[in-house]
Design a protein that fits this description.
The chain has 16 helices and 7 strands. By secondary structure, the chain is of the alpha+beta class. The termini are far apart.
């Protein structure tokens, strides 16, 4: 059972240290002398580890739980809380708490809980690989545009221009955080506007011709792998959400009776509602007996308890195994498919489509519409879309042997 303040106050010492567990790795360790220490136990790099979260009553139960969640978020983002703490202690010992790395990690810890796990992993990996080794130990108020440009140029020279732009943007976010918290006077990254060559836009591959769509859907129906991946492949074109939102779908967010899926959009942090067509409900009902006991609709095959979502590569790998090349279809391609055909073939209003794609759509006063805007019309649109895909699939059944092209 979770701990209570009363249970903590009345916890008595024994001959040996006692552990009283709260849940999710948090426990109270009562020493033989009566001291009460908060501990967090976690697993990192195939090893069991633990860190101290403070002493009771200086650190209350509520605060201990808050610190536990912060540490759990670090682990989820592939950051070892123990090593993170050591880095901060080392920085303080050297009198460099104002260094770029220390403030960047502070910024990351503050904002990462609001990001998708894959996004936060990319950011911290980018900083640790391409920024910290070069300017991490420098006082943040001494960082100048020339040093930032050197960091970006080093990335550009290895052929990763887009990563160079993203890294420079992340450095600017850290520097603006330092300005906001009174540890720097200005953000010099703004002086580098135009210093890097622009990134040429790339369109993710998508099938948008009706005949090709029909053949593609027939191929997806013939997938012979796991039921979980097969259902994800069949549901993807019906709901056309972002790949990360599909694989992280949780049963708690889906109301099968109301035919609705409500979640927070990974890219914008806004609430979103997906009306579920009859065909989408059928797929979810087929999958529920297999994964409905766990958190995720599409759990990883490596976690029998269903406490981790499927890999972000699972759908792409399935497409490739079925002979659908990267130049033909991508995970994001289902969104382009829906956007094109809903507009050009089915004739639905562009603002209905944009709302359903979870793009930011504003009213004449500049206010963003909420998730229920045009909901009745969007329900009709989603059912019409599912029925249209069924017709395309039936038409493509006889032509499947000719391939997607």
């Amino acid at each position: 059972m979770p701990l209570t303040d009363k249970a903590i106050r009345h916890a008595r010492p024994g001959a040996k240290p006692r552990k009283i567990f709260d849940g999710s790795g948090l426990y109270l360790e009562v020493s033989p002398r009566g001291g009460k220490w908060w501990r967090f136990k976690y697993r990192f790099g195939a090893k069991d580890k633990r860190i101290s979260l403070g002493v009771y009553p200086d650190v209350s139960l509520k605060e201990a739980r808050k610190r536990r969640e912060q540490a759990r978020q670090m682990v989820a983002n592939e950051i070892d809380p123990s090593e993170h703490r050591k880095a901060h202690k080392a920085a303080r010992a050297e009198g460099s708490t104002n260094c770029f790395e220390a403030i960047a990690r502070e910024w990351f810890t503050k904002y990462a809980p609001n990001w998708a796990g894959s996004h936060s992993c990319r950011i911290i990996n980018r900083l640790e690989r391409d920024v910290f080794p070069w300017i991490g130990n420098k006082p943040i108020d001494a960082i100048n545009a020339s040093q930032l440009l050197s960091v970006a140029r080093r990335i550009e020279q290895r052929g990763a221009l887009e990563t160079a732009h993203r890294t420079l943007r992340n450095c600017g976010q850290v520097l603006r955080y330092a300005v906001a918290t009174g540890r720097a006077m200005r953000d010099p990254s703004g002086d580098l506007r135009g210093a890097l060559p622009p990134v040429k836009g790339k369109h993710l591959a998508a099938v948008t011709q009706p005949e090709q769509v029909g053949r593609l859907l027939k191929v997806l129906d013939g997938y012979e792998g796991s039921l979980i991946v097969r259902c994800a492949l069949r549901l993807a074109p019906l709901v056309f959400v972002r790949p990360g939102e599909l694989r992280n779908a949780e049963w708690a967010d889906i109301d099968l009776d109301a035919a609705e899926w409500r979640f927070t959009v990974s890219k914008t942090g806004t609430l979103h509602l997906v009306p579920l067509s009859r065909q989408a409900i059928e797929i979810l009902c087929e999958l529920y007996p297999l994964t409905g006991y766990g958190r995720y609709v599409f759990p990883s095959g490596r976690t029998p308890k269903g406490d981790r979502p499927m890999s972000d590569n699972a759908v792409l790998a399935a497409l490739r195994r079925m002979g659908i090349g990267k130049e033909e279809m991508s995970g994001h391609g289902f969104r382009a498919m829906a956007r094109t055909l809903l507009d050009e073939v089915l004739g639905f209003r562009p603002d209905y489509i944009e709302h359903q794609l979870a793009h930011v759509v504003r009213d004449p006063l500049g206010r963003a519409y909420n998730r229920t805007t045009h909901l009745p019309e969007r329900r009709k649109m989603m059912q019409a879309w599912a029925d249209y895909l069924d017709r395309l699939k039936a038409d493509g059944a006889g032509a499947i042997s000719r391939g997607l092209r």
